[in-house]
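Supplementary material to the annual report.
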Amino acid sequence: MQSQSYYVPAQSPWPIVGAIAMFFIAVGAGLTVMQLETADLSGVVILSLGVLILLYMLFGWFRHVIQESDKGLYSLQMDRSFKQGMSWFIFSEVMFFFAFFGALFYARVFSVPWLGGASNNQMTNEVLWPSFESAWPLLNTPAGEVTQAMPWYGLPLINTVILLTSSVTLHVAHKAIEKNNRMQLTAFLSVTVLLGFVFLGLQVEEYIHAYEALNLTLQSGIYGNTFYLLTGFHGMHVTIGALLLGIVLIRVVKGHFTEQKHFAFQAAAWYWHFVDVVWVCLFVFVYVM
Amino acid sequence: MSTQVHSAEHAHDEHPTGIKRWLFTTNHKEIGSLYLIFSLVMFLIGGAMAMIIRAELFQPGLQLVDPHFFNQMTTVHGLIMVFGAVMPAFTGLANWMIPMMIGAPDMALPRMNNWSFWILPFAFAILLASLFMEGGGPAFGWTFYAPLSTTYSNDNTALFVFAVHIMGISSIMGAINVIVTIVNLRAPGMTWMKLPLFVWTWLITAFLLIAVMPVLAGAVTMVLTDKYFGTSFFDAAGGGDPVMFQHIFWFFGHPEVYIMILPAFGIISTIVPTFSRKKLFGYSSMVYATSSIAFLSFIVWAHHMFTTGMPLAGELFFMYATMLISVPTGVKVFNWVATMWRGSISFEIPMMFSIAFIVLFTLGGFSGLMLAITPADFQYHDTYFVVAHFHYVLVTGAVFSIMAAVYYWLPKWTGHMYCITTAKWHFWMSMISVNILFFPMHFVGLAGMPRRIPDYALQFADFNAIISIGGFAFGLSQLIFVWCVYKCAKGGESVPDKVWDGAEGLEWEVPSPAPLHTFSTPPEVK
Ligand code: HEM
Ligand SMILES: [Cu+2]
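Predicted assembly:
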């Protein structure tokens, strides 16, 4: 391993701004949820303020880092630290989804069959909801909610194709940046971002369809719950990923990055591929199976 | 091995002073101190809550506080001690010591380091503020089982949820920083099997943190949607299951208890050799034992759920897997004792805490083994026996190790020796009172006294009075600690670079007090 002098970044006001942003977001989000059934909007106001401060922080922090990077302050070691940090962050995201996939798995394999009397649970069924029958997707809940399942063909399939395509276009863009082919890079990165937003648009359409035509809502039992939480958090991650790629695109247009140094691009790209992999799991376990 | 260019980042030699210094800092030592001070404050606040609990339980009957408030106290006491006191203390120690131990200039991602610290006080401000709001704070136990936290919780639960989210984000960022620092910033020659054990144990702890804190985030999120958005993850009426909550929670929760003990193992493995004047016995077996504990900690979670009516195969699997953990744990205890065997031991304060740790933590391990026996746990579960178990492993385990670490490294941090007499008073007072406090809990637990109750049957009265007296004494003894540390920070006898003559490691080669920037170029490790 090549050893070199250390680079230690200077003090920075941005983290504390970020901490204040988090405080506002947490308090705001908490109050917003608590005030759902009231006309009180103070929570929403605090939450929005927090988001604004967070955006301000991200903008300032990133700009600061970009300037430092342009000055050539960062050593290869710093670059490695950034990359490893990003990989571990993605691993933590994997574990976040793991919790929800775990819930889906548990509901399908254990709790729903048990409520239907499987294993040694005949009495559970007899005593609690004798007319309940176990099935997946769970369209008739023990409490009597009725809903319809979201089929995998149609919008979800189209969305799968879109996301997979975007992974390919992003890969092409990545190859282009390594060959310093700016034209190709800009074109393929733009297509990727575009596909990301198309995906999100279709996802919204799917939700509307689910709510209006299928009566599949957040309240329709464990099938709808796992459906919305998994697709919802995935959608949130697509939004973040698309925004990150969008920022990278702006920087590309401005002429940032070189063949060797494009950590921001790489980080956003890893994130995007991760989001895609989550979708594939989601498509298989939430929609198809 | 390589050329060492002198880097000297003069850019930030102009160091802001006053409050800005602490708000903007990217220095691992300053951030380490912030974590440690924060943890001490939380320890005192959480301790005050314990005093309220013990005061109420001093006699049978309801006298001082109403039951709802009592429940808030047990809940917030647990949350604060776990997330506010023990974990930040270890993170503070990691910040201070890891870069010095591996010859790094700082943590790998210093600004993120600042961020991960400063969001913590905000998280606890939210949690504590909810206590004063209408309806009160969380009252469902630190484990926030559904439906207590969903159907039956008060309206402020959303604040609890988001406070926990911030704590989780903070831990994850801190852990990422630790891993990247260790993987990427080791000085040349600092090979894996030369890493000090504190660094090893923290590396594995950090991995556990990144793996399970997101699962905790998932659990609180589902509590949030169940409570406020009408989902039924933990409600059988919608096809969910309250027991599913416990599975998800304990998938986080059991690794979490190891998160709170692995760094302690690292500390004890550092201190015992120093004062035995011998090399640590079985270094590599320590590394492998730590790794296997970490691995096993992922497959034992349901030992907290033996009484939930799991299928028999599950009960058996989790019983045997749990017992398996005591093998690597036993390896460690054996190695510490073997290190002391025929050493020329001297009993400085850190060593006294370490020896107390070894004995008392092992006791906690034994009660853990009893709890791991499924049929026996049917009787012990949710009694004071469990409370005795986890306080032995957490107070005389994790907390004692933190105190040992502070007494070990404080002279290096401040450049002064603390007052030994005061420290001895602290040790002996704590050592005696902690056993008066927690040992009788075994007896009342075995006799059937349930945990988390503000009132109890008359036959438990005598033991509870004794327990409470031990509790007050232990609480007061910690004020000696605060005083001792404060005095040492203010001044005292100067110490040499190598404070303890038997000590090994890079941290003893830098001046005392350690300069703000330790290594600007990598030191060569032989
Ligand atoms: C030999 C190792 C250990 C074994 C076999 C063991 C076993 C157990 C079992 C079976 C329980 C569940 C008891 C019940 O609720 O009925 C339990 C609870 C607990 N253990 Fe351990 N344990 C061990 C070590 C540790 C360590 C090292 C820690 C922390 C540093 C720890 C912290 C806890 C905590 C906090 C609880 C209670 C959680 C709660 O319900 O609030 N244990 N332990
Ligand atoms: Cu456990």
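Chain B touches chain A through 88 residues (CB under 8 Å).
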